[in-house]
């Protein structure tokens, strides 16, 4: 059995449509009345949006129900599905903790409440019957004030047992007016020894080379090989990995056809830039990681050799994978050890 790593999955977009619909049926009369039958909800939840901003509005729908009380419910089902249906051995789950705190609290109280959210997510992610290594990436947000984003960075540094890195999210076209703030925050994060990624170069409006030096990985980054291939040698030298999430670009209208990603993969491979294939929002897409692989293969975007290279790169660039090798290599080592013992026993007879 193959075992995979997903380095880019949002907590808000990870809930598959049927589980979210069932939750609404039981606990949210307004949504239950709006979508009395599941097919109409699935069509609404997973359909293509015109822009990234319109697409991101769906996150607010899920964030509103991912509270201190309900997070364990959603996370357990997320992990169960990831283990049984996706064969995940490793998952980095990212989200903005501030947006899971009670809205009636003032800003200072919500900042204090973030610690509890991270602890809840961390403890709920430890499910013995589904042994997946899970770590959190805390997202700063383009629409949150500097004080909150700085508190998110400091929280990540304080809770390293649960958190492996920080990110910035909220639509890459919105960073421009506050670019100096985010550069300052990333500098601060690196000074604290935090690992870093960031939603960047996802759309043509989200290209900020000033942020690149502070990132260890790049969330999406597809506009670099598409529009700015001159930057690829710089990425290769810095060992920066792109977190490419194929279905996202169709759902947000960023790309019209999956085959457009062939240029992304080909140019990155030629330049020696690693790519990890990820899901981003597996629930919003109703597409799991093995299907992302299959879609890329069947539409001739990549070949099997490139797929294997991307799967290996995901473990190599994982922020909290505790081993030097991916799971397949570890299993092969175990099998070889067992075979050697059996051969020695036979020789001794």
From TrEMBL:
Give the organism, scientific name: Crocosphaera subtropica (strain ATCC 51142 / BH68) (Cyanothece sp. (strain ATCC 51142))
CDD domains in UniProt: ADA_AMPD
Q: What is its EC number?
A: 3.5.4.4
Give the record's family classification. Belongs to the metallo-dependent hydrolases superfamily. Adenosine and AMP deaminases family.
List, for all copies, the residue spans of the domain called Adenosine deaminase.
5-319
Q: Does the keyword Metal-binding apply?
A: yes
Q: Which GO terms describe its biological process?
A: adenosine catabolic process; hypoxanthine salvage; inosine biosynthetic process
Cellular component, GO annotation: cytosol
Q: What class of enzyme is it?
A: hydrolase
Cofactor annotation:
Zn(2+)
One Gene Ontology term of the molecular function aspect: adenosine deaminase activity
Keyword field: Hydrolase, Metal-binding, Zinc
Pfam families, alphabetized? A_deaminase
Q: Which domain of life is it from?
A: Bacteria
Record's Gene3D superfamilies?
Metal-dependent hydrolases
Q: Which InterPro entries match?
A: A_deaminase_dom (IPR001365), Ado/ade_deaminase (IPR006330), Metal_Hydrolase (IPR032466)
Q: What is this protein called?
A: adenosine deaminase
């Amino acid at each position: 059995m193959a075992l995979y790593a997903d380095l880019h999955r949002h907590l808000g977009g990870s809930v598959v449509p049927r589980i979210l619909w069932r939750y609404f049926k039981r606990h949210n009369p307004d949504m239950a009345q709006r979508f009395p039958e599941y097919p109409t909800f699935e069509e609404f939840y997973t359909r293509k949006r015109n822009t990234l901003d319109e697409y991101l509005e769906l996150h607010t729908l899920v964030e509103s129900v991912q509270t201190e009380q309900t997070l364990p419910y959603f996370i357990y089902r997320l992990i169960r599905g990831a283990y049984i249906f996706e064969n995940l051995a490793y998952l980095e789950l990212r989200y903005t903790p501030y947006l899971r705190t009670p809205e009636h609290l003032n800003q200072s109280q919500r900042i204090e409440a973030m610690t509890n959210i991270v602890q809840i997510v961390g403890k709920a992610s430890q499910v013995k019957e589904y042994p997946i290594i899970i770590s959190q990436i805390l997202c700063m947000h383009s629409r949150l004030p500097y004080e909150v984003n700085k508190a998110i960075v400091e929280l990540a540094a304080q809770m390293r047992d649960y958190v492996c890195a920080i990110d910035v999210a909220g639509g890459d076209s919105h960073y421009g007016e506050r670019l100096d703030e985010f550069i300052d925050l990333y500098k601060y994060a690196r000074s604290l020894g935090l690992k870093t990624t960031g939603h960047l170069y996802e759309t043509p409006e989200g290209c900020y080379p000033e942020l690149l030096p502070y990132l260890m990985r790049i969330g999406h980054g597809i506009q670099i090989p598409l529009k700015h291939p001159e930057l690829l040698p710089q990425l290769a030298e810095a060992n920066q990995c792109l977190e490419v999430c194929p279905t996202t670009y169709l759902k947000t209208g960023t790309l019209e056809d999956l085959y457009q990603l062939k240029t992304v993969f080909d140019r990155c491979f030629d330049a020696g830039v690693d790519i990890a294939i990820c899901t981003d929002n597996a629930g919003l897409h109703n597409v799991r990681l093995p299907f992302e692989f299959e879609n890329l293969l069947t539409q001739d975007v990549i070949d099997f050799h490139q797929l294997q290279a991307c799967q290996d790169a995901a473990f190599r660039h994982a922020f909290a994978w505790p081993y030097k090798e991916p799971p397949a290599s570890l299993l092969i080592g175990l099998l070889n050890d067992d075979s050697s013992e059996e051969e020695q026993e036979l020789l001794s007879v």
